[in-house]
């Protein structure tokens, strides 16, 4: 969807990771008017180099691009600050007479290269002396920098006079990886699992939507929504008709987001993976998981390590003093924003210890799991043996989805892509 007929300028500053072996698959050839970012899934936060090991040999090169040109001038600039500053400058220079779309997919807090996966600036890490674990402290610093970045972008929109008709969406893309290769030390407690697994900890992402255009604002929503819903939602917001689009898996969810109308979505496909031989789907409140990812290494719940946060932290006060709050105070012309107290607590999940205290079943020989996520969001009580009718129905739905899948294409690594063949960069390599 390039949307030229809607008159929208599309801009992206991000981790692309959607294919780049030909230039035609890179952002500015797929509809975006501007691009600043990197093509692959991770890189060093300061050098912007990507390391890859092939046959015991490290292959390294620059993966930072301005359009289709390598960006050699950002060495030493911390990635989160780099992308934020670029986004702010873009906002300052936008043509305000045109509708705009900015996709800012930050590097943080994704891990960097395998030799130094966690990187944060000292001023951010110094805010968290109580954590008591080095990697978790670095991770907290990475998240804190991201928090500042969100504030800087909101402030720039306010100073540009664009906040009053903007829709701001913040969303995580997946759960954290607590340990192992390329771990970020992100913990998904109390949810079960980690990134790439079929469990809720891998995919139940934190998100918020802010906009003066919301008809019913200041609320916590537990309506079901999937990442595929964003495209038709944004397209419709921009004035397009979703009937013009090719058949999509997603739905226009603006009525749900804006007016709290019932979600159009009842089913979710988490994954159907023939390589790891596992699958998971959700239908209404029930979820079925068949098989396991990575030999079950991420099946359990991972407790939060390190020290406890200070008792009774002033989270509401931190929110009131944030960069974003200052921008909103300027927008509304008042110092008291009337933040609802205790929002963080009201969005937190808890799981009864009688359900989840014993984790022995996480290492069981079970291959089929059925959960009622309304009652058991932490996936502790397997209902497969007691709810046969529901299980059979869910299996039928899963098989319908499975019949629509196509075999994944996973070619071998092509040495022609290595930076030594492209002036030290990870560039498209097939003409």
From TrEMBL:
GO molecular function annotation: metal ion binding; sulfuric ester hydrolase activity
Keyword Glycoprotein belongs to the record: yes
UniProt keyword terms in alphabetical order: Calcium, Glycoprotein, Metal-binding
CDD domains membership: 4-S (cd16029)
Sulfatase N-terminal domain location: 8-239
Cofactor(s) listed: Ca(2+)
Region (Disordered) location: 412-431
Pfam families recorded: Sulfatase
InterPro entries, per database record: Alkaline_phosphatase_core_sf, ARSB, Sulfatase_N
SUPFAM superfamilies, per the entry: Alkaline phosphatase-like
Keyword Glycoprotein in annotation: yes
Family: Belongs to the sulfatase family.
Entry protein name: Putative arylsulfatase b midgut overexpressed
Organism: Rhipicephalus microplus
